[in-house]
Every structure is written in C-alpha cells, then in structure tokens.
Specification:
Distance between the termini: 17 Å
Low-confidence stretches: none
Helix content: over 70%
Largest sheet: none
Number of strands: 0
Keywords: Membrane, Transmembrane, Transmembrane helix
Order of helices and strands: HHH
Oligomer: single chain
Shape: elongated
Radius of gyration: 18 Å
Strand content: under 5%
Number of helices: 3
C-alpha cells in the first residue's frame, strides 16, 4: 500500500512540473516570426492548449473510474 502512495505522489509531481520546450516545425516558426501583430501565434498557442487538454481529461476520467471500481 505504501508503494502505491509513493508511486501516485511521483506521478502527480511529474504531471505538475512544467517542462519548457522550444520545438516547432520550420514553416510554423517562420510564419509566426514574420507576423507583427502576434494574433496567429496566440491562436496557435490556444489551439495547442486545447488539443493537449483533452487527453489529460480523458486519462484522469479513466483513472477516476478505475479508482471508484477498485474501492467498491
């Protein structure tokens, strides 16, 4: 039981730590750097956040469902 708690704590810490990544395709970077207003870059960033949020919500829901089934 203690190992499960430690594993869960480590898993939570890994997901909460921010990771600074500077990776883009060459074409996206060129288009976003050439634009002066920054609206396209803001739109791209918002789209990435929305695309990344959905899998995390689905995985969290799956873990919650498994947790409830194991407790019952």
């Amino acid at each position: 039981m203690r190992i499960k708690k430690i594993f869960l704590l480590l898993l939570v810490l890994v997901f909460l730590l921010p990771i600074d990544v500077d990776a883009q395709c060459a074409m996206c970077r060129a288009v976003l750097e050439s634009e002066s207003s920054g609206k396209a870059a803001e739109g791209i960033n918002n789209g990435i956040v929305y695309l990344m949020a959905v899998p995390y919500v689905l995985v969290a829901g799956l873990f919650f469902f498994i947790y409830k089934k194991m407790r019952a």
